[in-house]
Design goal:
Elements: E1 9-14, H1 16-33, E2 39-45, H2 48-58, E3 63-73, E4 82-87, E5 97-105, H3 109-119, E6 125-133, E7 146-150, E8 156-157, E9 173-176
Parallel strand pairs: 2-3, 2-5, 5-6, 6-7
Antiparallel strand pairs: 1-9, 3-4, 8-9
Helix pairs in contact: 1-2
The structure holds 1-O-pyrophosphono-5-O-phosphono-alpha-D-ribofuranose.
1-O-pyrophosphono-5-O-phosphono-alpha-D-ribofuranose binds next to strand 2, strand 5 and helix 3.
Length: about 180
């Protein structure tokens, strides 16, 4: 543990070595599936940046990168999942093979919105790759083509995931102690 580590870690869920090995495996799958095509990785800011840059280095295919930022908030009745694009893509995705990169899929509401929005822009294909999948929190079913790890219903930090915007720069993923 370094001074970048949070003081209230319960346990390390995935070490740097485990993460690196798993990302290489997923990158190999992607390289096979996109053989002969140019893949455009679209990262959802900010958490996915750390995963995207590692993944991209291991994908053996011609590759482009773009980013979008979203903000999500509750509706009038307090239900979550009202999502809008706060920073749009820089370039068109029409006719492109798009791979949407997430750090985590929880309720699935963000991903559902992004898939609906991006599919309306006529990409040649649209797939999803997530670093973490917290499936137990799912409210809507969403397709996930590539996932590195499924995780329990616990608050996790590291490798892009934050607590009050901190700890994204940890090389590992850790479970935080429950707040008292
Ligand atoms: C995370 C993640 C997804 C969303 C998933 O983003 O990157 O976009 O939450 O949640 P859902 O499945 O319940 O919709 P977050 O809001 O934490 O932003 P960040 O990446 O900037 O930390």
């Amino acid at each position: 543990m370094s001074i970048a580590s949070p003081p209230n870690i319960e346990r390390v869920l995935f070490t740097e070595e485990q993460i690196d090995r798993r990302i290489r495996e997923v990158a190999a799958e992607i390289s096979r599936d996109y053989q002969g095509r140019v893949v455009k990785l679209i990262g959802v800011l900010k958490g996915s940046v750390f995963f995207l840059t590692t993944l991209a280095r291991y994908v053996d295919a011609p590759l482009k990168v773009d980013f979008l930022g979203i903000s999500s908030f509750s509706n009038k009745s307090g239900a979550p999942g009202v999502v809008r694009i706060a920073k749009d893509l820089d370039e068109s995705i029409e006719g492109e093979d798009v791979l949407l990169i997430e750090d985590i899929v929880d309720t699935g509401l963000t991903l559902r919105y992004l898939l609906q929005t991006l599919s309306g822009r006529a990409p040649n294909s649209l797939s999803v790759c997530t670093f973490l999948d917290r499936n137990s929190r799912r409210l809507v079913q969403v397709p996930i083509n590539y996932r590195c790890f499924e995780i329990p219903d616990r608050f996790v930090v590291g490798f892009g995931l934050d607590y009050n915007q901190l700890y994204r720069n940890l090389g590992y993923v850790a479970v935080m102690k429950p707040q008292t």
